[in-house]
Amino acid sequence: MIDHNDASGNKSFNHYAPFVTPEKYAELAGFSVDAVKCQVQNGKLPVIQREGGRRGRILINMKALEEFAEEQAQEFTHWKAAI
């Protein structure tokens, strides 16, 4: 069992809520907030819109992104095939 302070594991798993704000997603993915908002507007990210306020709040569906990544990993067993 690897302790959370143990550096012997080379994988870093962070657990986030199934939905994150565009700002948090930009931070996690290394994109600008404007780039993420553009991806949302173009339908390239799975989102939900929470009711409330005048326009509601857009949230990125991290679970759907994880499932998509797993599908891609199974389809393209060699990473160069995905390019």
Keywords:
83 residues; alpha+beta; single chain; three-stranded antiparallel sheet; elongated
Helices, strands, pairings?
Elements: E1 19-20, H1 22-29, H2 33-41, E2 47-50, E3 57-61, H3 62-75
Helix pairs in contact: 1-2
In a nutshell, what does this entry contain?
By secondary structure, the protein is α+β, with helices and mostly antiparallel strands. Helix content is 37%, strand content 13%.
Description:
By secondary structure, this protein is an alpha+beta fold. The chain has helices spanning 22-29, 33-41, 62-75, and strands at residues 19-20, 47-50, 57-61. The chain has a three-stranded antiparallel β-sheet with strand order 1-3-2. The longest helix is centred in the C-terminal third of the chain and has 14 residues, at 62-75. The chain is elongated and about 45 Å long. It starts with 18 loop residues before the first strand and ends in an 8-residue tail after the last helix.
Order of H and E elements: EHHEEH
Strand content: 5-15%
Number of β-strand runs: 3
Mean pLDDT: 80
Total number of helices: 3
- What does the largest sheet look like? 3 strands, antiparallel
